Amino acid sequence: MTTAIGADTARKPATMAQALGRALRDAMAADPSVHVLGEDVGTLGGVFRITDGLAKEFGEDRCTDTPLAEAGILGTAVGMAMYGLRPVVEMQFDAFAYPSFEQLISHVSRMRNRTRGAMPMPITVRVPYGGGIGGVEHHSDSSEIYYMATPGLHVVAPATVADAYGLLRAAIASDDPVIFLEPKRLYWSKADWSADAPEQVPPIGRAVVRRPATGGRRSATLISYGPSVPVCLEAAEAARAEGWDLEVVDLRSLVPFDDDTVCASVRRTGRAVVVHEATGFGGPGGEIAARVTERCFHHLEAPVLRVAGFDIPYPPPMLERHHLPGVDRVLDAVARLQWESEWTEGSAV
Amino acid sequence: MTVLEQPGAYRPTPPPGWQPRVEAGPLLPDAEPYRLLGTAAAAGISPDLLTRLHRELVRGRRYNTQATALTRQGRLAVYPSSTGQEACQVAAGLVLEDRDWLFPSYRDTLAAVVRGLDPVDALTLLRGDWHSGYDPHAHRVAPLCTPLATQLPHAVGLAHAARLKGDDVVALALVGDGGTSEGDFHEALNFAAVWHAPVVFLVQNNGFAISVPLAKQTAAPSLAHKAVGYGMPGRLVDGNDVAAVHQVLAEAVRRARGGGGPTLVEAVTYRIEAHTNADDATRYRPDSEVEAWRAHDPIALLEDAMRDRRLLDDEGVQAARESAERLAADLRTRMHQDAVLDPMELFEHVYADRTSQLREQAAQLRAELDAEAGDSGKGE
């Protein structure tokens, strides 16, 4: 078999983009009802080349270049799902998905509920999302909160090459609609990976402890997902020098939310910082902090802190490094977890 | 100045990307709405079809008046009547084969009932006991769609999927004149034409989008003309002439099934009642206009034509009315029964499997319900 990545079980370096493409290919090979559609997904193979080769291997009926119309792409996917297909839709960039929101919110998310289970919507919506690639305006939004606020949708975001493959396979296999957020800036991140290891298909809704705390005295949990997970891992390493023992939880799935894994970690460490690129006000971190506080209040040594993007429209590319939460901002938050020290009015979060 | 800007420099002619993909002429609708009843061509329509159309028209009118009455009795939260538009509803409900799909909007309950849906199930959305009272697969009727025109891309996708699977299934999608202004109308027609999907779009132009008249909705020569821009045929038909609507739709369905692609049909009709029972139509249209359209009533048009051909007599009219009364009586009886609802079903169909969060919330509601039952038990 000749594919971009070998089908053998040996672990080889692969990028997240390759793993995503492989997941699509394997899903299409395994199930003839899986159809890929979107703008530029066919001949071009997608602007990020995730769908490269699919039209050639499976034909243009299975990997279809559509007219440039996001509502039409998702709306026709609804009809295809009604007739028993499993559409995988590509929204070229995060902010390009907005025209499709009416279809998503009025139909995709509620068709199962409206029809009392008679009409499930096994649609996967792939959204290349987030910043850090120097994109111009409308190419770097973190739109997860819009999706999270809509009942009926699953919302997942991989942070590793293996999860990119596994979660995408799980999303396509799900009988419910899944918003699959692909962290653009991790597309070219590499890891040793084998497509055939079974542990690489995690169920949707399960978080994972990416880096365990080792039982040190000053410990805390960094809660994150998608593009901020590598930032947290780096921060956790750097924090060792400051005497901090940090655990990193990778949520993988925002909806459903894995309260158990998150709260078990916070109960172990006693402190928590939520880290994401999306804006802080009304952002995912507020929900996560509230959940943790409600469930772990008596275990907490300090308030749950948030390290988020600023509450601004996504900045122009030459300024985005000031907006995106980096290692230093995470470490600053960790330093503020020594609650006995102080909390002064106006200290920024 | 670059080389290409210098006088006499070589300027290649670009390839002809501007050229039309298809000839526009054959796609254009007739200048006047197509009519069949009262013309010589009407002699060719089968008596059986006319009798069936008549019976459904009379039953449909009664369904509309009964449902409207149920809103006044508080049994329906709202009812958008299709009185005056029954010819479109009946033709749409009868023109499809069993394996085909109908995509109705909220005003198209009657089309769904004519297609075979239980009249009470078709009103579930409007009564408010659930969002859709039927299994869409049972009669191949998509859920009544409240957002405007968003059901049109669904019809395209379903028809496209059926064709990919090798099934000769046609989708018929209904939309109003106001819906043609929505972006989803454009995207659906464009997708359908590009994909050559077996879809028929029926625009019921009933004159008003709630209160906004057609002249404020579009500057197009007709709504049927919009078809040409997408590369599909547009047909203009008298929406109160049930035989004409049925024939035009049947041709479009045949064409779609045979691989000929989509068609846009504009049926010119009139909404005799207000937008819903909550609307005051006297604020935006004169009685004289309504009366003129009453004189062009779809049932009267058909009865006149059938009596001319001696296909209908007083007895036949009476039989149709009795059938309609039975429908209305059944509807009254069943709609006056209180709906039996299980609040726990609120959590049942959000996802295939309940999330842990929904399990917690279901437990909370269960406890609240048990407490309520306990309280009411103490009171007895």
UniProtKB/TrEMBL annotation, chain A:
UniProt keywords, alphabetically: Oxidoreductase, Thiamine pyrophosphate
GO molecular function: magnesium ion binding; oxidoreductase activity
Residue ranges that the Swiss-Prot or TrEMBL entry lists as coiled coil: none
Cofactor(s), names only, from the UniProt record: thiamine diphosphate
Hydrolase among keywords: no
Signal peptide: none
EC code(s) of this entry: 1.2.4.-
InterPro entries for the chain: THDP-binding (IPR029061), Transketo_C/PFOR_II (IPR009014), Transketolase-like_Pyr-bd (IPR005475), Transketolase_C (IPR033248)
Gene3D superfamilies: 3.40.50.920, 3.40.50.970
Residue ranges annotated for the Transketolase-like pyrimidine-binding domain, each copy included: 14-189
Pfam family, one: Transketolase_C
The name this protein goes by in its record: 2-oxoisovalerate dehydrogenase subunit beta
